[in-house]
Amino acid sequence: MIAIISLSIMLTGCTSQHEEEEEHTSTSEYTDIETEENLSTETHLEESDAENEMENTDSGAAMEAQDEAPETDPDASAPAAADMSPIHLENPGVGYYLAEEPETVQEHTLQLEQIYEKANAITDEEGWFAANQLEIPFYGMPGSFAEGKQLPEQIPDSFKSLPLTQSWFDDSFIYCVYGEVYYEGYLLNLYEKDTCEPVMSLDFSAFCSEEYEYGEYQWVRWARVDGQMLYVSLSHNTYSENAPNHAYITAIDLTDMSILWKTEPLVSNARNFEIIGNEIVCGYGFTAEDDFLYQIDRDTGRILEQIPVNSQADYIIRKDDQLFVRTYDTNYVFQIIQ
User: What pLDDT was estimated at residue 100?
Assistant: First the structure.
């Protein structure tokens, strides 16, 4: 298994998503975001009509191309995925954990300078992505209200008798979470982005307390591979006073599956986090609780900086040298200074 993992991580042939180069957005342009969001629905409908017309015009050519294409089996990766044995990861304990101090200390120069803040309509999430030309990093799931790309049909919708509860992607991997109830899950599977071949399966059940009731049973919320490291955010969706030891990030060394560190609790329950240089930018908040963005040291998991925000962070999306943050009721833009 370790050989497969090491080989998969070292692969350099993964397909990268081509991002369009955008002009640098000035602060004055952000004042028009509300207008752009209002127009995004009409623009989307017009584009949809144009796309449908083009699809009808080119349907004959598409059918011919399909006839000439080699046959593929949508379920080809399913048996391989079913054969994976989840690697059980041990929870190093409650609270902050560091396996050992790093031999060298990295210099931290990341600064996040707020350049935009404006209240949002709470329900205009898709308009925010469209107005700022940000990619939705999640796949659309059955029963989900969020828009997203269609999950490749080669990805199994169940694993070890557990249904697929959420899925997202980056340039190299597809991340899938499987669990017992909608949205929550403790099995994290990784598949190669270009081939959908299974890479590994990780079992985080030891990180989920059996004492908690539904809604307090923390799950894998987000994960990201960077080099030989895997960073995973786990949290539940209720008040910290009911179950305070949640909403943290864990760092895993993929060469031997050891836990290198675990942050303090109550730092990460946003839908995602961003890796910027030697730091991780994440966010935590909840009703009647303090809401912050956190800058985390990738070498130790320690908190370097915290930035107050008006409400719980939902999305933290980097675009060029700017960080777009959407909280429950407020949109922010931060200039990334390194």
Answer: 96
